[in-house]
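Comment thread on ticket #2218

A.B. wrote:
> Attaching the input chain for the structure job we discussed in standup.
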Amino acid sequence: MSVKLAEAEQLIKKAEKSLKTSFLKWKPDLDSAIEYYGKAAIIYQNLKMRKESAEIYCHIAKLNAENGSFFHCAKAYDTASLLYREIPDFPKMIECVETAGKTLRQNGVPDSATGIYNKAARALESELPEKSAGFYENAADTAELEGKALEAADLAGQAARIWTRLHRFTEAERLLRYEMKLCECAAESDAETAFRVCGKAVLALIVIKLFQGDSIAASKVYDEAVQRYHFGQTDDAEPAASLLQVFDSMDATGAANIVKMPSFRAMETEYAKLVRSIKFPSADSFGESKAPDPSTEKGPENDGGDEAEDQDIC
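C.D. wrote:
> Ran it. Output below, let me know if you need it in another format.
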């Protein structure tokens, strides 16, 4: 290990020397410096010295930007983000991902930015779900810029799923509606797939509204989807209508069967849990109070009667 460390240190010294200028050397040799730093970073990475390796990759990224190679700049930041993820150092990881994505978007490489955002979002789902949802949305925005509406819709749906898990329903609704809009755009080239995907988003939003106890809002979502997104032609329309019907008719018993329908069982885990947690109103809870049964109540003449007789006997 000591030999490899010494080799890495020598490479760093060579890189630093390449960046120096003199009377006869007016410009730093960026290409050589990047090459030497890259070799040193790999050695540190192989030695499991992730922090040192990540720091060098960040330095390489800056040199690539100075050299006008923005794609390689972003790739270096991406590599650094993976190393910070392993440490783990999430603030540094997030900073690298954001810089890499921004660099790629600003320099005309949005497809690579989408991949970086998506990869980071998946990595952060458990540890930092809010940031994960944000990266999924960034990926969706970037995919939309590329004209990849269906891919963007899927990514927006992933963000909505995370917000639903956190019970952040305002954000979830915003992303689900964004997903629907993207599907509407995608329908120009592939209507069947677009409206099928859109139907899943509509069903998810209906479930959220019913979980919140707002059947009026849920019905409005259904009606809007039928008119605008051809929801009535999808396989999810009938289950959604049945769910709304049992909720409005206060048929809690029927609801137990409806939520077992394939459309609800096939939903993402976050939505499937919501379906099972919907508090369906019962007709009994809205009826008049039952009259008390005289045989079970103690009248004034009976209240404590036995005890009185016992006292008399005594």
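A.B. wrote:
> Thanks. Noting for the ticket: The chain has two domains: 1-106, 146-281.
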